């Protein structure tokens, strides 16, 4: 393979700028436009991208060196001649070695925390709100001014992804610069309870009881508004169920990085079979609902993809895989939604699932569920099909890692290769914990589930 010298491109009026971060090392496979180093002048800092793809053969710069347009950054074993332009038209500018200072180790590229560690006791999504003194902009410019915390663009990006207020991070780098390791250490300190953010202190004072128990979440106090000055108002207490579930929902939504996968399942034949079966099952006092079939299908998918039937341990570093399948399902009651749990669903047939689910739902409506009736779920299904809607984002019921939402089925035209056919389509909304499950896994889950529901023979096996 051809050896290519990757040089500093045209960076405007900047000259003899200092290398403050080296983002790659010898042996790394890099792509075109991947950031190689971070440089800083007295005005701004910026990342220098690669003009070629390949494997780093040798670095030609180190921390503290001064570079200008045309300075050689590294030698690259290029993936192909077309992948890179050696930029020969620019004369090579010399690299000015760093002044004699205590040797500093070469900076390693910013490495995100393991997925299991992100968000446990600390905000991992930028949906949180921080007070003005520690606010992070949603979008950072490529160059950052010295008035902001001393950190490179890549470190700022990492901080945004982890919800870290850079103003509260103490930098260990040259001249107090904040490194990726500093950001990661700050997150670990908050997660372990060794420190809290300033915003969490404010939230703990003004947001009411329990506000500081969210592991350092940077939340503003709840707004105090006199609504009566805008018009007539009345006050109504929340139901006991909503009072109990509210804090859990707030915790789960804030501390679990939710992503929702949307899909549809063709249940045309399954619905016909369900209706005809109910005519026979009525004599036994059993009503087969679509939810019972979905539960049966979910058992098959959960066995194929056990990560969906798991939980993170308290440290957030280990996955607990469960050899049992207990399915929670949302039941609507006059007091609000509750989630009874149907145990050992993998060991039961359709009729038994439907019968026990009906009994639990009736007990829930009567307000007579025992605590044990709502414990132990490994996966939850929330069905709004009887009410309406096309899709929604169900909130994960911690410590579970996923929840399936069902909306109202509709007749839709579906192309069969020759013509459009009317098919009954069931909307699926799968919310999952992104620390445990990635997008590809979620897409496979809904795809396999849809295939099972489309072929009722596979559901019944």
From TrEMBL:
Chain ranges of the Lipoyl-binding domain: 3-77
EC number: 2.3.1.12
Gene Ontology cellular-component terms listed: cytoplasm; pyruvate dehydrogenase complex
GO molecular function, one term: lipoic acid binding
Listed Pfam families: 2-oxoacid_dh (PF00198), Biotin_lipoyl (PF00364), E3_binding (PF02817)
Textual note on the cofactor: Binds 1 lipoyl cofactor covalently.
Peripheral subunit-binding (PSBD) domain mapped to chain residues: 150-187
Catalytic activity of the protein: N(6)-[(R)-dihydrolipoyl]-L-lysyl-[protein] + acetyl-CoA = N(6)-[(R)-S(8)-acetyldihydrolipoyl]-L-lysyl-[protein] + CoA
BP GO annotations: pyruvate decarboxylation to acetyl-CoA
Cofactor (UniProt): (R)-lipoate
Keyword Acyltransferase recorded: yes
Keyword Membrane: no
Record PANTHER family: DIHYDROLIPOAMIDE ACETYLTRANSFERASE COMPONENT OF PYRUVATE DEHYDROGENASE COMPLEX, DIHYDROLIPOYLLYSINE-RESIDUE ACETYLTRANSFERASE COMPONENT OF PYRUVATE DEHYDROGENASE COMPLEX
Protein's recorded name: Acetyltransferase component of pyruvate dehydrogenase complex
Organism: Thiomonas arsenitoxydans (strain DSM 22701 / CIP 110005 / 3As)
Lineage: Bacteria, Pseudomonadati, Pseudomonadota, Betaproteobacteria, Burkholderiales
